[in-house]
Write a structure and sequence with these properties.
Number of strands: 43
CATH topology of the largest domain: Neuraminidase
CATH class of the largest domain: Mainly Beta
Number of helices: 2
Shape: rod-shaped
């Protein structure tokens, strides 16, 4: 009796406690797993869901609305709204997509129709080509009308396409146990049909411990002996089928789907010793008050596996009342009740699905939400270093690569921001900050920083790009260093259209040619000091400048640099005082300076005896 009225009581509890729905706790997952509430309580009275390859999630509401979740939001308009009888466990109970959806846009549903009598039906709808979030009006094609219902419970309702391209349907025995052991109706069975509703010619014709063969519409029967198979799942790659059959008072069953099998109900609940009956792969007791009904189930064999290796190929299944999800190995099933805990604290789970990106989704009827479970351990985020030449003008771009150590089934985010080191924001580079988002499977993103070009001879400088506040990952390298390499040689001022230096004797302030001996100079060597002028030097503390001159005999002289400083009244000019070499003969000296490893242009300075 308890299981008969579960959905009715739960529906009432959701309505009466609606003010508290946002307080629903998240489940208790193993370490390194995280979950996200996708819909934020935007659903009600949920029964089943299907994951579309494009990322949308279709969710059945018992009251007849087939809701669409797109970009983590429940769309306001249902894909379709069906006229259903939702008493007890009746209503919209199953949904799946055609394997050829990309070309035909077919969506299939299982629901309790109201006419001409109350009965369960499987129909096909076509998504609108212009907006695939809604069905084409009037596109329903009825594939199966099942027998008229008496009781409001034990409807089954899950539908999925098998690896053979056939549509499989699980049907409850409508609270009449004998229905499960007769071939005269389709209740308490697994059905197998073609996508157009016709019956495959290779369906089984005999079943253990039942006389005769099915005929007419009952030729759709593929397996018998089930009580209330609420969910089932096919394993990608192997095609293995698990059927979750809700027991009466004793055992909840996970059965291996096999053509022509008889799973024993009502002769057996759980394992039994009767020849010909197919025993459960796994069973657990529903006698304790905490447990009541095996519901969602799915194999972990996604296209991109992100869970640890011990979960690959395993079967996840849920209990409606206990609110847990457990895991078993289908090739080495545990003893009775020995499945491994995965998570607890779910508010009435009804369905489980695994997405191609490695995420596991479960549908929590009590929360009115879909939850996404992801594994995050081991994923780290890092950033590289970049070296860029400054350029003589305009803005160039330094591109930093931010990388994940491996693909994640999560959406990973990380904040970034530039910071001064020896480079100065707005002078040397353009400050920037923001958040990078890695969609599932994405492993690299780019941070671009503008670099300001100029013609100054200056130091090579650097700035940092810092990473902070990651989600669903940890940081292994938090700082990228941007090195701006200066490419400008120093420039000595010269006369217009000439190599002759703009230079002054530092004592008499005369122009060249400079006298070798200057009586007005107070130095003991009586040699001339000359002020040269550079036009593009950026002065920094400790800056080293060397100077050299080549005379008429092509002899190179190293010049003493005795003063370097800016000219307050001539912004942008740098005064460089050098001492001319002893023994210089009359004529032009070819003078240059070397700063920061770069040598300037040659400027002519004339001398006379």
């Amino acid at each position: 009796m308890l299981k008969t009225i579960l959905f009715s009581l739960l529906s009432l509890s959701i309505v009466t406690s609606g003010l508290h729905k946002n307080a629903e706790p998240m489940s208790s997952l193993p370490g390194d797993f995280v979950e996200t509430e996708i819909t934020g309580n935007g659903l009600s009275n949920t029964t089943a869901m299907a994951l579309h390859p494009d990322g949308r999630i279709f969710v059945c509401q018992q009251t007849g609305e087939l809701r669409v979740i797109k970009n983590n939001v429940v769309l306001p308009t249902p894909f379709t709204t069906l006229n259903v009888n939702s008493s007890g466990e009746r209503g919209l109970l199953g949904v799946t997509f055609d394997p050829n959806y990309a070309t035909n846009r077919f969506v299939y549903v299982y629901y309790t129709a109201t006419t001409p009598t109350i009965h369960n039906r499987v129909s096909r709808f076509t998504a609108n080509a212009a907006n695939e979030d809604i069905a084409v009006t009037g596109s329903e094609v009825v594939l199966i009308d099942l027998e008229t219902l008496g009781a409001t419970n034990h409807n089954g309702g899950a539908i999925h396409f098998g690896p053979d391209g056939k549509l499989y349907i699980v049907v409850g025995e409508n609270a009449v146990p004998s229905n499960s052991q007769t071939l005269a109706n389709r209740l308490g069975k697994v059905l197998r049909i073609n996508s157009d509703g016709s019956i495959p010619a290779d369906n089984p014709t005999s079943f253990p411990n039942i006389a005769g063969s099915p005929s007419g519409v009952n030729r759709a029967i593929w397996a018998v002996g089930l009580r209330n198979p609420f969910t089932f799942s096919f394993q990608p790659g192997t095609g293995r089928m698990h059927i979750n059959d809700v027991g009466q008072d004793t055992w909840e069953e996970v059965n291996v789907g096999t053509a022509g099998a008889n799973f024993g109900w009502p002769t057996c609940e759980g394992a039994c010793a009767i020849a010909g009956m197919t025993n459960p792969l796994y069973q657990y007791s529903s006698a304790p008050a905490a447990t009541c009904a095996v519901t969602g189930g799915a194999f972990y064999n996604p296209t991109t596996a992100t869970f640890p290796a011990q979960f690959i190929g395993k079967y996840f299944f849920a209990d409606f009342c206990a609110g847990w999800i457990k895991v078993l190995d289908p090739l080495s099933p545990p003893p009775t009740g020995g499945a491994v805990d995965f998570t607890t604290g779910i508010s009435f789970p009804v369905d489980i699905q695994v997405a191609n990106d490695g995420s596991l989704y479960y549908l929590a009827r009590g929360s009115g939400s879909v939850f996404r479970v992801q594994f995050v351990a081991g994923v780290t985020v890092s950033i590289n270093d970049v070296t860029i030449t400054e350029g003589a003008g305009g803005t160039s771009v330094a591109n930093f690569t931010v990388s994940l150590s491996s693909a994640s089934s999560n959406t990973v985010t990380v904040n970034y921001a530039t910071a001064d080191n020896t480079a100065v924001a707005s002078v040397d580079y353009i400050a920037t900050s923001g958040t990078l988002t890695f969609t599932p499977g994405q492993t690299s993103r780019t941070v671009s920083v503008g670099i300001n070009g100029d013609t100054l001879n200056e130091d090579t400088v650097s700035f940092n790009v810092n990473l902070t506040s990651p989600t669903n990952a940890t940081i292994s390298d938090s700082q990228g260093v941007g090195t701006i390499v200066d490419d400008d040689a120093p420039v000595l001022a010269t006369e217009e259209n000439s190599q002759r230096a703009i230079a002054l004797d530092t004592v008499t302030f005369i122009r060249d040619p400079f006298p070798i001996t200057n009586t007005q100079y107070f130095g003991i060597d009586k040699r001339t000091r000359v002020s040269l002028f550079a036009t593009n030097l950026k002065l920094t503390p400790g800056l080293i400048i060397t100077a050299q001159a080549v005379d008429q005999q092509q002899v190179t002289h190293q010049l003493s640099v005795e003063f370097v400083g800016g000219l307050p009244t001539f912004l942008g000019f740098t005064q460089i005082v050098v001492k001319l070499p002893d023994g210089t003969t009359a004529g032009d000296l070819r003078v240059s300076i070397t700063v920061r490893g770069k040598t300037s242009n040659v400027a002519l300075a004339g001398v006379q005896p």
